[in-house]
Amino acid sequence: MMQAYRTEGNYRSAARLSPAELRAAMANREILQATALAFDTQRQLRFEIGGVRAVMPFAQCADGAANGTVRDIAVLTRVGRPTCFVIEALDTDENGQPFYRLSRALAQQMCKADYLDTLQPGDILPCTVTHIEPFGAFCDVGCGISALLPIDCMSVSRISSPADRVSVGQQILCAVKNRDVQGRFVLTIRELLGTWEENAAGFTVGETVVGIVRSVEEYGTFIEIAPNLAGLAESCTDLVPGQAVSVYIKNILPEKMKIKLVIVNHALSQRHRFELKYFITEGHLDHWVYSTPESPKRIETDFAAAACNPA
């Protein structure tokens, strides 16, 4: 049976399997998961599977742990969280008690060889956001393997923080942008969130909608009305990026890719974040154009070029 590779937290729970099912999973090298209960003084993760103790030595806690490229902090933060693994063996300890030996490193090596290394720039894959930094969000792309989604790849419209677009634990879709010099994936999501025309089609001149202030300039205020669409309103120095407002849509100009807005309510009381709306959910992209045919301004992504010229 072909192994299905998923993000950590989305595998079969070993705790719910019978001894016979666990033996079958071990024989088939099936990836399972369980909650790590401790990282002990012997530098191993401890689990309990069906009433039987299970251990994961540090070298098996992540691909790269054996050669020192993985730090303790990356392992001990697994405690209390679902952690994927392959059962390597059922052994007995010095007291004759059975215990399972587990390997997350092997699960990650299998995921890389059979799944991730087959992906090309432009391929779309499911990810889970694991943590957020000012420059981007780190995502699990399979078995806890991390990839970076940079802030400038989160939308065409400008955002101040990755938290404006995603949250920790959120399951999202991304496309592979390229690989960095260490061979790690760099991800992008903006190409999946629609072109200017696709987003603008959801709005009509004369209606009033919720917007989020993205930047305040001398010549006007940029306000996002969808994750990949922003318009320009009058300059208003008492507004700050991230603030929710209501705006009247005065004009929609496809030939200039511009939306003219008028701020109606300057201070909505609640925070607001747009849900991600995907216009593409599967498959592969070679080339993506955000711009309208009439616009002289070109915003596009050439995934095929990235595939030919890896970083």
TrEMBL record:
Keywords: Ribonucleoprotein, Ribosomal protein. One of its GO terms (molecular function) is structural constituent of ribosome. The keyword Ribonucleoprotein applies. The keyword Nuclease does not apply. One of its GO terms (cellular component) is ribosome. Residues 122-190, 206-232 form the S1 motif domain. Pfam families: S1. GO terms for biological process: translation. Signal peptide: none annotated. SMART domains: S1 (SM00316). Transmembrane segments: none annotated. Belongs to the bacterial ribosomal protein bS1 family. PANTHER family: 30S RIBOSOMAL PROTEIN S1 (PTHR10724), SMALL RIBOSOMAL SUBUNIT PROTEIN BS1C (PTHR10724:SF7). This is 30S ribosomal protein S1. It comes from Faecalibacterium prausnitzii.
